[in-house]
Design goal:
Layout lengths: L2 E7 L20 H10 L3 E6 L20 E4 L2 E4 L25 E5 L22 H7 L2 E9 L1 H14 L3 E10 L6 H12 L2 E2 L1
Parallel strand pairs: 1-2, 1-6, 2-5, 6-7, 7-8
Antiparallel strand pairs: 3-4
Helix pairs in contact: 3-4
This protein binds pyrazine-2-carboxylic acid and zinc ion.
The site of pyrazine-2-carboxylic acid (VGL) has 9 residues, from helix 3.
Length: 199
């Protein structure tokens, strides 16, 4: 029998109220996520982890403001306020998150020239993080995902996971969205269509 894992996406201070890229109600999910952590044998977390002057920061693009887009060699990229700087308080997990049980923390977005929303691939959809291999080697086939933000890092992780052959469930009450220009509805639709179970 294959194993199951809980994947907690980017539950970091910068995505919570008061943070650099705050997601409305981001901190509200912490108790729900903690209950799920207790109920899973395997827990994996991701941590958005950018170097200074990361190319996803609007400040790196003259004349651009956060939440505008820019064309990168790998495709369209949304620009963000500076956030989740490596080693900063903003990049730390929310203080209320029970992170000690996590068996693996996947850091992403650490290459200056490319962003990474998904826990599996960077935004070129080609450069792997190694997570798929790690899960296969450990015989984990069934993933439950929670965290921030529903319509970016959670959604891209879920879509890639299905593509990689994993069975994927997203617990919506344990996620919160950025919702830029209808992105929540668009990404929810894509997840459903791809076979992600939204519960
Ligand atoms: C995220 C925007 C930029 C996320 C990360 O975790 O959804 N969104 N970096
Ligand atoms: Zn980021």
């Amino acid at each position: 029998m294959a194993d199951k894992a809980l994947l907690v996406i980017d539950l970091q201070n910068d995505f919570c109220p008061g943070g650099a890229l705050a997601v409305t109600g981001g901190d509200e999910i912490v108790p729900v996520v903690n209950r799920l952590i207790e109920s899973f044998d395997h827990v994996i977390m991701t941590q958005d982890w950018h170097p200074p002057r990361h190319s996803s920061f609007a400040a790196e693009h003259a004349g651009k403001a956060p939440f505008e887009t820019v064309d990168m060699p790998y495709g369209e990229q949304t620009l963000w306020p500076d956030h989740c700087l490596q080693g900063s308080a903003g990049a730390a997990f929310h203080a209320g998150l029970d992170w000690t049980k996590a068996e693996l923390v996947v850091r992403k977005g650490f290459r200056r020239e490319i962003d990474s929303y998904s826990a599996f691939f960077e935004n070129d959809h080609e450069t792997p993080t190694g997570l798929a291999g790690y899960l296969r080697e450990r015989n984990i086939a069934d993933l439950t995902m929670v965290g921030l933000a529903t319509d970016f890092c959670v959604a891209y992780s879920a879509l890639d996971a299905v593509q990689e052959g994993f069975s994927v469930k997203v617990v919506m009450e344990a996620c919160r969205a950025i919702d830029l220009g209808g992105s929540l509805a668009a990404m929810t639709g894509m997840m459903k269509e791809a076979g992600v179970r939204l519960v």
